[in-house]
Amino acid sequence: MGEKSHEEQLCAVYPTLTPGGAEKDRVYSDIALTGLFNAHIVLFTQEVQWFWRHYQIMLLANSFIFGFFLNLKNPTLFQAFFGLVFGLVFCWLWWKMTYTASVYQDIWQEAAQRFNWPEFKTGGRPSNPISYAMERRKEVVKEKRWCIKDHRIRTMSRSVILMFAVSYVCLFISHIMPSKS
What we know:
The model is unreliable at about 15-20 (pLDDT under 50).
């Protein structure tokens, strides 16, 4: 099966468009396609905002939890073990939220890249600004070898989560080891 034409894509999304109608009124179909494209951009932007809001909340909550267990004076083995398990479960949930948000960002970004305005003259670059930005990003990554491929921010955000998980393990070990004083 071949790809759907510009008109077939619009009729599938906008049931008010009738076959042949989009061809008769190209301006209307371009406006409809642009409106749908803008909706994708808004959803992508909203997903990024939700990601960072959740990330900040989890960072703050994890900091409070870690600080609470760090300040325990002479904790019992149960308290130390509870702190370890609670902290690691919290880090795992944080990791899953971060991963899921990244997947949804990719979904919206890929969907936005599929939009195409065939009649739009751009001087050799893609008519879709998202496609153009992604192509340009790949070029920049190739030029600068110090870049960590495409996902530097995702790598750093996951590194913070791993740092907290390792800190919980170190805190547990420090609580169960007998002090030499």
